[in-house]
Q: What sequence folds into this?
């Protein structure tokens, strides 16, 4: 009898725990339904599928439909149509068509979808300099208790414009010597990376050109040259690295055992341009080429890898949406 009673008590406790956990899961799944306070990550409110695939999206018939719905005051249909339209945005749309994002954010606020509205206001603040104070006013009015702060975007863009006019790197005054025809071509040659012994240089060149029916196809490739007896050898293409796609922005590790570079517009890539790494296999040959993967590369443009002096941190540029502006600097280690 004692054991039977104990068994029944244990079964009752297990049943209570199971019921409580089921109830919690249900509450979590339904919290905020209809009021814009969903637990879904803000980054997944709208998925921008075209980032890294097209620069700019425009559909005149859909824009006319948006105008008609707005004029008729059909806000529910207008929200769905706007969401569908902006989900097709390329990276340029976020600056040129920020008014559509603003309109959608206002509709979210009007329909009590506050979390979505705040998410869109933050996105606008990061990617436009139009009417910035006006956007700040609205964002601040609904985000008084939020702890996420943003960089003043008007200052950010002024800084970008300023940097276009000056050299941020000012080397010591000296004599500039052209490396000559053994290295340079009649076309663009740029982005050199040199090993720590100063006797191996890898750079990007647009010398690889092919005449086609639609015009000349320019293929960016990586070339290498080495210093021997005080002069540089004829530049040669990196045969195991270059493909029919574009390669560029080389970066050598401190001991030149690894080469970081970018490859663009490949079917296997994650975005417009991805960062890759290759291993030095001796005698200026490189192999075991690997994409750095989704933890580094995005669906947007990722480029200009640069290693820290210690070699344990990789810095790079990207125009992904999580940044403060058009192009930002990221790092990984």
A:
């Amino acid at each position: 009898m004692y054991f039977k009673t104990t068994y029944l008590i244990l079964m009752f406790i297990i049943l209570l725990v199971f019921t409580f956990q089921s109830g919690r899961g249900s509450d979590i799944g339904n919290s905020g339904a209809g009021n814009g306070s969903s637990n879904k990550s803000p980054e997944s409110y709208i998925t921008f599928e075209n980032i890294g695939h097209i620069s700019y999206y425009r559909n005149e018939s859909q824009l006319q439909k948006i105008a008609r719905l707005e004029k008729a005051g059909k806000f529910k249909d207008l929200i769905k149509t706007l969401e569908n339209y902006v989900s097709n945005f390329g990276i340029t749309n976020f600056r040129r068509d920020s008014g559509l994002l603003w309109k959608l954010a206002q509709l979210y606020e009007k329909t009590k979808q506050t979390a979505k509205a705040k998410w869109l206001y933050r996105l606008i603040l990061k990617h436009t300099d139009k009417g910035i104070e006006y956007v700040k006013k609205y964002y601040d009015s609904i985000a008084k208790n939020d702890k996420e702060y943003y960089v003043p975007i008007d200052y950010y863009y002024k800084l970008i414009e300023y940097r276009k006019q000056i050299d941020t790197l000012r080397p010591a005054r000296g004599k500039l010597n052209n490396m000559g025809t053994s290295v340079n071509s009649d076309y663009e040659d740029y982005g050199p990376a040199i090993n720590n012994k100063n006797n191996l240089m890898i750079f990007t060149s647009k010398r690889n050109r092919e005449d086609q029916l639609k015009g000349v196809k320019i293929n960016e490739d990586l070339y290498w040259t080495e210093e021997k007896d005080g002069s540089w050898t004829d530049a040669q293409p990196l045969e195991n690295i270059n493909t029919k796609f574009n390669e560029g922005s080389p970066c050598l590790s401190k001991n030149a055992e690894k080469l970081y570079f970018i490859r663009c517009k490949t079917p296997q890539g994650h975005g417009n341009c991805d960062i890759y790494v290759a291993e030095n296999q001796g005698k200026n040959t490189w192999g075991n080429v690997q994409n750095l993967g989704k933890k580094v590369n995005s669906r947007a443009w990722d480029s200009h890898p640069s290693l820290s002096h210690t070699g344990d941190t990789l810095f790079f540029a990207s125009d992904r949406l999580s940044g403060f502006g058009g192009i930002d600097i990221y790092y990984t280690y």
